[in-house]
What does this fold into?
Amino acid sequence: MQISLKNVSVDIPVFNSQGRSLKKTVMGIATGGKIGLTESGKTIIRSLENINLEIGPHERVGLIGHNGAGKSTLLRVLGKVYTPTSGSCVIRGKIGSLIDISLGIDSEATGIENVFLRAALLGIPKKEVEKALPEIIDFTQLGSFIEMPVRTYSTGMHLRLAFAVSTMISPDILLMDEWLSVGDRDFQHSAEKRLNNLIERSNVLILASHSRSLIERCCTRALWLEHGKIKLDASPKEVCSAYFD
It folds into this structure.
């Protein structure tokens, strides 16, 4: 298992930006990554700039910073969704992402069918899904609705199904964007227990959050991102004190 980023930058192109006012551009600089122009005159947002980062086995890394600071972009680089515009990125190990747990859910398919669809996207073998199916159905508390199309589900039912399947993974590197909170109060207790079991099965956790208590409770290290750069890399207590206070 290895995570190594050297001088990593990510530029995101902005299309149809000619009509934006100077005021909007200045506001963008104040709240997110840097806005600039390429040599051909195209508008880009530099979401990450010269990130140097080494993460070792058994680390629990928390990412904090204001909206637009680069937390989600960094998670997507680590999840191999984004390719760095410049720099080198070496990631070795099985990656599990809980950034979008509803990805791949088909509203016209039944709950059971969606279990297999979502599991296939996550790379979970069919035999493993078949073995775990009774436990998944029981956990979702969907009852006979598991045989109904997902379009008939409430938002809470939809999330419970997506959460149950997404937490079947056993990754080396687990990526999370905020702590997942699904269902009613009774269900949240069993969901948090399942989530903690997943984290324990993972070698490395990288969690983006705005919660000071969560970062200090769950992480062994914290990164403060600002304007796409790492402003501080230290213990959760030190970083949270500097950022929140």
User: Anything to note?
Assistant: The helical segments are 22-31, 71-78, 111-121, 126-140, 155-166, 185-201, 212-218, 236-244. The CA atoms of residues 79 and 212 lie 24 Å apart.
